[in-house]
Amino acid sequence: MEERKCLNCQEVLEGRADKKFCTRYCRSYFHNQLAKSKVDRRFKEVDEQLRLNRRILKKYNRSGKSVVRQEELFAEGFNPQIFTGYWKNQQGNTYLFCYEFGFMNTRENDKPKYVLIVWQSYMA
Ligand SMILES: [Zn+2]
């Protein structure tokens, strides 16, 4: 029979066949580390998506204001759910921002598009 080891410290396990940890300490340490690494991974994911969003918005908005087809942004990996802030103009339109680059979804000729703007000091 194969030797079973503690998933946390690799100590050889004795006793019940379904035992995975040598002590309660090892068991909770292992689960805490696992939870922590999931949180760390989420932080990294969001961080990377924000940088990617910013890079894409910058690329498609060289003039300061432009309108781009949604599929074009999505093809580059743009994810509108990840942003750093928002600004509502006097008409009640809300622009979401990734740092200094803003975007708002709209429709033009029945096609989903994004209006892109650049942050201005009056938006603060
Ligand atoms: Zn252990």
Biggest sheet: strand arrangement: 1-5-4-3-2
Largest sheet features: 5 strands, antiparallel
Tally the helices. 2
Overall helicity: 25-40%
Order of helices and strands: HEHEEEE
Give the CA-CA distance, first to last residue.
68 Å
Poorly predicted runs: none
Classify the beta-strand content into a percent band.
15-25%
Mean pLDDT: 95
Bound molecules: zinc ion
Class inferred from helices and paired strands: alpha+beta
Specify Rg, calculated over alpha carbons: 24 Å
Number of strands: 5
How would you describe this protein?
The chain has 124 residues and is an alpha+beta fold. It has a domain at 46-123. It is 35% helix and 24% strand. It has helices spanning 24-60, 70-75; strands at 65-69, 85-88, 94-98, 101-108, 111-118. Strands 1-5-4-3-2 form a five-stranded antiparallel β-sheet. The mean pLDDT is 95. The protein binds zinc ion. Zinc ion (ZN) binds at residues 6, 8-9, 11, 21-23, 26.
